[in-house]
Write a structure and sequence with these properties.
Elements lengths: L9 H10 L8 H4 L7 E6 L32 H25 L15 H8 L13 H11 L8 E4 L2 H10 L14 E8 L10 E4 L7 H5 L2 E6 L2 H8 L16 E6 L3 H9 L5 H4 L3 H5 L1 H9 L3
Antiparallel strand pairs: 1-3, 2-5, 3-6, 4-5
Helix pairs in contact: 1-9, 3-4, 3-5, 6-9
Length: 302
């Protein structure tokens, strides 16, 4: 079976992720990795997209999150990197600060704000430095992950331990709930990979798993994150941020399955019977109040 195979119907798509042997726990060693043999899944509503972190995409994604949104200056990539790193950290801090003012618990820790100061300052001054230094530092990962999961663009990529959750997010953006109109022959996609390969020294990514007790949505979505280790050095070499798909190799593999976007509503209906819906993945009083509206929209044409 080809790694990018197109599956024609929502039922066959779901059957693949439920029934394929590579996602089945078969022994106590598999069980120790968690469910689905330690596989990770990511759904996207356009199969033509790569695996590019939200803060690395074009169009100045931080413009609505910090007063100093960066632009790439090809004449000085180090300075561009410094401004970008500063804006990334500042956006997360402003998010945490606002949440704290509202009385919402967060992992905010003012002592971590200066953890990457040397890296950022060196880049802004166009100085020699070890630009392979980890960013964010481990002390800031939980904060960045929380921000990412609440809509702040970051360099982290969301994954789920559940293929059903990934299917939901792939379908949602091309469903009755989206204002986006699917083009002819447009496809949605679910990527999947082994978590084990992320722990190897040669892996291009680090795996970030943060405490779920601080984030009910993250817990319900069985979420975790990846971060490209050498993103900063790749930017300095190429003048562009890396797409995770460009870093695959024989030792680091990512596979995918595609589905016609026209099957998105059918996929959401099948997932509903498996208790995968907006209210189960985003539990809140607001979504409880809107639960019938969700069902009505999803099943009105049946």
């Amino acid at each position: 079976m080809k790694s990018n195979e197109l599956i024609s119907t929502a039922k066959e798509f779901l059957d693949f992720f439920i029934g394929d042997s590579r996602f089945k726990t078969s022994n106590k060693f598999d069980a120790s990795k968690g469910s689905r043999r330690g596989m990770l899944f990511r759904g996207q509503s356009d199969a033509a997209w790569g695996l590019l972190s939200s803060v690395f995409r074009g169009g100045r994604p931080l413009l609505d999150f910090t007063p100093q949104a960066p632009e790439v200056d090809k004449s000085s990539l180090r300075e561009s990197l410094g401004h970008h790193l500063h804006a990334e950290a500042r956006s997360v801090f402003l998010f945490l600060e606002s949440a704290d003012r509202m009385g919402i618990p967060t992992p905010i820790d003012l002592t971590t704000l200066n953890d990457s100061t040397d890296l950022i300052t060196a880049a802004m001054r166009d100085e020699e430095y070890d630009y392979s230094e980890q960013f964010p530092k481990s002390t800031f990962e939980a904060s960045m992950a929380l921000a990412q999961h609440n809509g702040v663009p970051t360099r982290l990529l969301d994954w789920s331990e559940s293929p059903l959750v990934a299917c939901y997010f792939a379908a949602l953006g091309r469903s009755v709930f989206s204002s986006k109109k699917s083009k002819i022959n447009q496809e949605i996609v679910v990527y999947f990979m082994s978590r084990d390969q992320c722990h190897h020294a040669s892996s291009p990514v680090s795996l970030i798993k943060v405490p779920k007790f601080q984030n009910v949505n993250l817990r319900c979505q069985q979420g975790m994150f990846t971060n490209i280790k050498g993103a900063n050095t790749i930017f300095l070499e190429d003048g562009a941020w890396p797409d995770l798909l460009s870093l695959t190799s024989s030792k680091f593999q990512i596979q995918k399955r595609r589905l016609p976007a026209s099957e998105s509503d059918d996929l959401l209906r099948l997932l509903y019977d498996l208790d995968i819906s907006r209210e189960s993945l985003f539990p809140s009083l607001a979504n409880a109040a809107a639960s019938y509206k969700y069902r009505k929209a999803l099943f009105s044409n049946i």
